[in-house]
Amino acid sequence: MIRHCRSLPWTALAIAAFVLALAPACGGDDDSGETDTGSDTGSDGDTDSDSDTDTTSGGGCAACEGPSCIASISGTVLYDGGTPMQGSLAICIPQCIPLQTESDGTFVLEMPGGCRAFDFGAGDPIHVTLYSTDNTHTQFSIALRPTQTEISDQGKDDYDLSVGTLYQYALPATGAGYTEASGASVSQDGVAFELEPGALGPVDLPVASATIKVLRFPIEEWNPPFNTVDLDALYFLAPYWTEIGGTEMGGAGTPLTIDPPSGWAAGDTGTVYMLGDFANGSYLSCGGTDQPQGELVECGTAAVEAGKVVTTPINRFGWVGLKKD
């Protein structure tokens, strides 16, 4: 059964009870590999590789045989101004466990049983998901496949996987108003596009109204850990994971017209990347194929036309990146 984690006000007692409830299932027989970063709590029928096993003999990770042995996962979440984020996140190992950050933005997830062995070459990655349910900040999932060397970066007895400091950036306070009856014309932070009436949402559950926001993400200020392809520019479109085009698993979409990033000139072409995720009961679909959660994937092309970068249509709001050929 897939357990989809939601952004809920979990108490420390509730989290502890949840972790204890998961402990008997940590031997790799549970197919709980996705974090649903939206509000859907149904099961999508996917099956995940049974790649992890408990290694509790000998205490801690001393007797763990790997390939990757983890006793805990830790990190810090801050807002872009440096203020600690006090809120929810989720870590899937592959079971999805909800956490609350501490007052200083830190979090720690202790592995049930004291240690767990992962084989990332054969099975699922670990997913860390940050939420924003109020359309005010960025959110994302990252997929982690650490080697033992990366886990034990503080020495051979270090089995804490540190994800470092993660940031959530504030979105613009205002945006373009969309209604199902009139659509919207969007132009913000160097990105412009048109939304036809009825363009947002699946055909059986259209979006009645929304505030569309665009943020040109400052990758020169903080490079998100999912940016594995050295993007030239990165954008966040909200409301997050809203479908464009009216079909349930990725519609016709809409092209974006973007101010050229530094280094782009007339005649240049490039690739459009999007960040895969699992939200509102569905994955990112590119080319008719569901894409992995927490990873950048190629989702189109772009070319400079009349002084602007014009992309092929995108079919969801979320993270969109450009890289010149």
Structure explained in plain terms:
5% of the residues lie in helices and 36% in strands. It has 325 residues and is mostly beta strands. The chain folds into 2 domains: 12-168, Sandwich (Immunoglobulin-like), CATH 2.60.40; 176-324, Chondroitinase Ac, Chain A, domain 3 (Sandwich). The model is unreliable at 1-32 and 39-59 (pLDDT under 50).
What share of residues is helical? under 10%
Largest sheet: 10 strands, antiparallel
Structural class: mainly beta
Radius of gyration: 20 Å
Uncertain spans, ≥5 residues at pLDDT below 50?
1-32, 39-59
Mean of residue pLDDT?
A: 84
Order of helices and strands: HEEEEEEEEEHEEEEEEEEEEEEEEE
Based on DSSP secondary structure assignment, what is the total number of beta strands?
24
CATH topology of the largest domain: Immunoglobulin-like
Instruction: Name the strands of the widest sheet in spatial order.
Output: 11-14-15-24-17-22-23-16-13-12
| Count of DSSP H/I helices | 2
Count of separate structural domains: 2
**Apparent shape:** globular
Alpha carbon gap, first and last residue: 42 Å
Provide a quick synopsis of the model.
With 325 residues, the chain is mostly beta strands. The protein folds into two domains: 12-168, Immunoglobulin-like (Sandwich), CATH 2.60.40.10; 176-324, Chondroitinase Ac, Chain A, domain 3. The chain has helices spanning 12-22, 148-151; strands at 52-54, 68-70, 72-79, 88-92, 96-100, 106-110, 116-118, 126-130, 140-144, 160-168, 176-179, 184-188, 191-195, 209-217, 233-238, 257-258, 269-275, 278-279, 282-283, 285-286, 289-290, 296-305, 308-311, 319-324.
